[in-house]
C-alpha cells in the first residue's frame, strides 16, 4: 500500500454559526502533487491553516506528515515547508541571509546551512546573486529561491499557497520543473492556485465550494466527467453553484 | 485612438523599453502580454502621462503624452497594477472622492458604470481595504470610469483574482468596448489573450509580435507534438536526452515538443516512431504521442526561445 502524507477526515472549522470548512475528507499520497482549488472565500485558506498546525479544527481529524494537527501541531510545523506568493523571503535581507535565517529557524547546523546554501545556489544557478538583496532580484528568481528555501529542512510535505502569480510562461515552467523534481524525490506537494493551467500540472486536484469539497480527481478525469476541454471550464461550472458571496 | 512610435526608456543601466511602436483603434481591446519586468508598467506610466519617455512619441486621441498631458488626464481612466484606492475610505466614499476630483457627479455617467455600481451597492459602507480581491477590482474599475473616459488603461487588472471573477471582469470590459471605449490592458496570463481584439507580446522591453490571436497561432512555424508519460520528471529527462529535439517543456498534463529543422525537413525519417523507441529505452510508461495545435503560450515560448 502506498503511504499517505495527508489524511483528512470530516475536518470542520466553524466561526460562530459560519462553517468556513464543512466536513471535508481526503487523502494525499507521498510524493503526490495535489492541487487544492476553490474560489475566493470557499474556505481554502482556513483548511490550509489547520493542515499547517496554525488553527485548531472545530471537529474532525487531520494527520500531516504522520502527526495529528490537533495533538502535535508543533511536530507538524517542523515536518512541513510553506511558501506563498505574498510572503516568503525577507526583501531587505540578501539571498545568503535568507537561507541562513530559515536554516537557523529549522535548527540546521552552521555546516549544514553552508552545504545547503551551496547546493541550492548551484541548482538554481544563482551563485552570482548570493549577496544581492532579495528585493533586487527578478520575481521569477525569487519564487524559485523561495521554493528551495521552503525545502531547506527536507520536509515531508510542502504547502504552496498561490506560488507563481505574475510570471511569464518560461519562468513558470522552470518553477514547475523544480516541483516535479521534489515530488520525484518523495516530497509531497500541496498547492493552491487561481490559475487553471497550473491545476493541470497536478496529479490530482480537489475543488472547494462553500466550505465543502465538491470534486476530487485527476484533471483528465474531471474534464471528462464534466464533458469540457479545459480546467477553467471545470472550475467555472463548479464555482457557479456557490451560494456564499464574494465578500 | 492610441499611437505609439519608437518609445524608449532607461532606468540607469536598465533598458526598460527599447523602441516600442503600435497603434490601438477606437473601441478596440488591445492586450499587452508579458512577464513581470517586461516593461508593461513603464509603458502604461508613459501613456498615462506619469512618466516622460527618453525617446519616441505617443498620442492618445491625437494629444501628445508629453505636451498635452493636462488634457489627456481628463479623458483617460487608469487602473494601476497595485490597488491604489483609499483603503480606509468606504466604497461610497472612494467613488464620491474620485467623482469630485474629476468634477462630475456619480449620477452623470451612470449608464457607463451602472452594471458595476449595482454589484458594489451591497458593500457601500464597507472600507475598501476589507473587500475581496474581485470586489476591489470592480471598485477600482468603477472609479476609473467615473468621468466617462474615452480610453481605459488597465495594468494587470486580473492578477490574483479567481477564474470566475476574471471571466466576469472580461465580460465587463467587452461591454465597455462595445460602448466605444478604447482599452489597453496588460496581463501575464496567455489565456486572457483570447479576450482581446489584438495582442502584443512584450519581452525585455521589446514588442516581439502584434496581431490577432488567430494570426499569432498561424505564424507558428514548425510542427508541434504533445507527449504524455507516467512520471513527468523522468519523461522530461528522457526527452532532453533525445538529440533531435529543439524545444520541450511541460504544458498542462503533457510535455510539448518540437524538433530541429533538419529533422522536420527529413522526409525519410519517422520522428514519432524514433521518439517512441527512445522513450521505451528510457523506461517511460504509458507513452502517448500526438500532433498538437499550438496555443498562445507555445507561440510565446517559440518567439522567446533564444533569450
Topology readout:
The complex is a heterodimer of chains A (247) and B (307).
Chain A: E1 4-15, E2 18-29, E3 33-38, H1 44-51, E4 59-64, E5 67-68, H2 73-79, E6 80-84, H3 95-105, H4 110-123, H5 139-150, E7 157-161, H6 169-184, E8 188-192, H7 196-199, E9 204-209, E10 212-217, H8 219-226, H9 231-239
Parallel strand pairs in A: 3-8, 3-9, 6-7, 7-8
Antiparallel strand pairs in A: 1-2, 1-4, 4-5, 9-10
Helix pairs in contact in A: 3-4, 5-6, 8-9
Chain B: E1 2-11, E2 14-24, E3 29-33, H1 40-47, E4 55-60, E5 63-64, H2 69-75, E6 76-79, H3 91-101, H4 110-120, H5 133-145, E7 151-155, H6 163-178, E8 182-187, E9 198-203, E10 206-211, H7 213-218, E11 225-228, H8 232-240, E12 245-251, E13 254-259, H9 261-264, H10 271-281, E14 288-291, H11 296-303
Parallel strand pairs in B: 3-8, 3-9, 6-7, 7-8
Antiparallel strand pairs in B: 1-2, 1-4, 4-5, 9-10, 11-13, 11-14, 12-13
Helix pairs in contact in B: 3-5, 4-5
Amino acid at each position: 500500500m502506498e503511504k499517505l502524507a495527508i489524511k483528512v477526515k470530516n475536518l470542520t472549522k466553524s466561526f460562530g454559526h459560519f462553517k468556513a470548512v464543512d466536513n471535508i475528507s481526503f487523502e494525499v499520497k507521498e510524493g503526490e502533487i495535489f492541487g487544492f482549488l476553490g474560489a475566493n472565500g470557499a474556505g481554502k485558506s482556513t483548511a490550509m491553516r489547520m493542515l499547517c498546525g496554525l488553527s485548531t479544527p472545530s471537529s474532525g481529524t487531520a494527520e500531516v506528515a504522520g502527526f495529528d494537527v490537533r495533538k502535535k501541531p508543533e511536530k507538524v510545523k517542523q515536518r512541513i515547508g510553506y511558501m506563498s506568493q505574498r510572503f516568503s523571503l525577507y526583501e531587505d535581507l540578501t539571498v545568503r541571509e535568507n537561507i541562513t535565517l530559515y536554516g537557523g529557524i529549522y535548527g540546521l547546523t552552521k555546516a549544514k546551512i553552508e552545504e545547503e546554501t551551496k547546493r541550492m545556489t548551484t541548482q538554481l544557478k544563482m551563485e552570482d546573486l548570493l549577496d544581492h538583496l532579495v528585493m533586487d532580484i527578478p520575481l521569477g528568481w525569487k519564487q524559485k529561491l523561495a521554493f528551495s528555501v521552503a525545502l531547506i529542512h527536507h520536509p515531508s510535505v510542502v504547502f504552496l499557497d498561490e506560488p507563481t502569480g505574475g510570471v511569464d510562461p518560461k519562468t513558470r515552467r522552470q518553477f514547475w520543473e523544480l516541483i516535479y523534481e521534489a515530488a520525484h524525490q518523495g516530497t509531497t506537494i500541496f498547492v493552491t492556485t487561481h490559475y487553471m493551467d497550473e491545476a493541470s500540472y497536478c496529479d490530482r486536484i480537489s475543488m472547494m465550494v462553500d466550505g465543502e469539497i465538491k470534486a476530487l480527481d485527476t484533471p483528465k478525469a474531471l474534464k471528462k466527467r464534466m464533458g469540457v476541454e479545459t480546467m477553467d471550464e471545470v472550475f467555472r461550472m463548479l464555482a457557479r453553484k456557490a451560494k456564499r458571496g464574494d465578500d | 485612438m492610441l499611437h505609439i512610435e519608437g518609445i524608449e526608456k532607461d532606468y540607469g543601466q536598465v533598458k526598460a523599453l527599447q523602441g516600442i511602436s503600435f497603434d490601438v483603434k477606437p473601441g478596440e481591446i488591445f492586450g499587452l502580454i508579458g512577464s513581470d519586468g517586461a516593461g508593461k508598467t513603464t509603458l502604461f506610466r508613459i501613456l498615462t502621462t506619469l512618466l516622460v519617455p527618453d525617446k519616441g512619441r505617443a498620442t492618445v486621441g491625437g494629444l501628445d503624452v508629453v505636451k498635452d498631458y493636462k488634457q489627456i488626464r481628463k479623458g483617460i481612466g487608469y487602473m494601476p497594477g497595485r490597488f491604489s484606492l483609499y483603503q480606509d475610505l468606504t466604497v461610497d466614499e472612494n467613488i464620491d472622492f474620485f467623482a469630485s476630483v474629476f468634477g462630475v457627479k456619480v449620477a452623470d455617467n451612470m449608464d457607463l458604470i451602472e452594471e458595476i455600481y449595482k454589484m458594489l451597492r451591497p458593500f457601500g459602507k464597507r472600507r475598501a481595504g476589507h473587500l475581496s480581491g474581485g470586489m476591489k477590482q470592480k471598485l477600482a474599475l468603477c472609479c476609473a470610469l467615473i468621468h466617462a473616459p474615452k480610453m481605459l488603461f488597465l495594468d494587470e487588472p486580473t492578477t490574483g483574482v479567481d477564474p470566475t471573477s476574471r471571466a466576469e471582469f472580461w465580460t465587463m470590459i467587452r461591454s465597455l468596448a462595445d460602448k466605444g471605449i478604447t482599452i489597453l490592458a496588460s496581463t501575464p496570463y496567455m489565456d486572457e489573450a483570447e479576450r482581446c481584439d489584438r495582442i502584443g507580446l512584450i519581452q525585455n522591453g521589446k514588442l516581439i509580435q502584434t496581431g490577432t490571436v488567430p494570426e499569432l497561432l498561424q505564424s507558428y512555424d514548425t510542427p508541434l507534438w504533445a507527449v504524455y508519460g507516467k512520471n513527468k520528471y523522468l519523461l522530461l529527462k528522457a526527452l532532453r536526452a533525445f538529440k533531435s529535439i529543439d524545444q520541450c517543456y511541460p504544458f498542462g498534463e503533457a510535455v510539448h515538443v518540437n524538433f530541429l529543422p533538419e529533422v522536420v525537413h527529413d522526409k525519410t525519417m519517422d520522428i514519432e516512431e524514433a521518439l517512441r523507441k527512445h522513450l521505451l529505452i528510457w523506461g517511460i510508461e504509458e507513452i502517448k504521442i500526438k500532433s498538437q495545435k499550438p496555443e498562445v503560450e507555445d507561440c510565446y515560448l517559440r518567439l522567446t526561445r533564444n533569450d
